[in-house]
Amino acid sequence: MIHGFRHAICTIGLALCAGFGLVSAAVGPAQAGSAAQPGQTVGLPAGAQLPVGLYFVNTSSFGVRDTLPLESQSNINLPTFLWATSWNLLGARLNLIAIQPVVASSPRGTPYQSGIGQPLLAAQFAWNLGNDFGVSYLFGGYLPIQTGFLTQNASLSHRFAASYTGNGLNLTANLLYGIFVDPVTAQGVVYPDYLNLDLTATKKFGKWEVGPVAFASTDLPTRFPGYRRQGQIAVGGLVGYNFGPVNVQAYVTQDVVERNYGGRETRGWLRLIVPIYKESTSSAAPSIPLSGRQTLR
């Protein structure tokens, strides 16, 4: 039983490295995954408006991918500050977001490396359409870094979300579209543009929240003939509990389809949402519509 438990935990861990493009193709130009981690907004009503305030969220993930001959593992922590301002533009509430990831990884059984990932700075516009429906648009950028085992080149991020949050439900689809400013490094690592889709269908029962989640990702075509495009589809389940000032979510996802990652991944996630200040102190702790992502290569 203990061995099985350890194996399950390791499997949960590798998920991250696959999602971060840790695995490179055996032939052709070296690969790197998308700048936005597939599944990063699962569980969050990304299309809904937040109460005016300042929020802190940390999404921590540990993943394992069944690469051969040895597994790959990684841990990602994504501390995020989100300021839901009182400013409105064309009927939309403006949110400002800053994320500074901290990453550790062990690709294919090699010694762990750790470092600071690419910061993400973004602005989001969220519209309340009435009847518990909302949509949002986020525009931001991942800044360039020099951490050698992470994605280094700058990129732009567009995100389009729609949410229904009535009757205790969270039905959300969030489409993430990323564009690299420079698609290749001096070392020949290719950074493809990408599309990710995060899906949530949860229901609240008092302070509890449960339901299925899923995500999909794909690299977009590049101008490099030898590049092997990566992609995946994963499904899983989420459990959350609202302690009052702090909202906790945990979910596990498993690949059902993968392309050019070297093996399927299982990923475990833990998210803490803490309102530092919010205008309506009587409302429940909200869900933050963004958690950042770094790509390992």
Summarize the structure.
With 297 residues, the protein is mainly beta. 6% of the residues lie in helices and 53% in strands.
Secondary-structure blueprint of this entry?
Elements: H1 2-19, E1 30-31, E2 53-65, E3 72-89, E4 92-99, E5 102-106, E6 113-116, E7 120-130, E8 133-142, E9 155-164, E10 169-180, E11 189-190, E12 194-205, E13 208-219, E14 231-242, E15 247-259, E16 265-278
Parallel strand pairs: 1-11
Antiparallel strand pairs: 2-16, 3-4, 3-5, 4-7, 5-6, 7-8, 8-9, 9-10, 10-12, 12-13, 13-14, 14-15, 15-16
Polypeptide structure, described:
By secondary structure, this protein is mainly β. 6% of the residues lie in helices and 53% in strands. It has one helix at 2-19, and strands at residues 30-31, 53-65, 72-89, 92-99, 102-106, 113-116, 120-130, 133-142, 155-164, 169-180, 189-190, 194-205, 208-219, 231-242, 247-259, 265-278. β12 and β13 (208-219) form a beta hairpin. The chain is globular. Residues 1-30, 281-285 and 290-297 have low confidence and may be disordered.
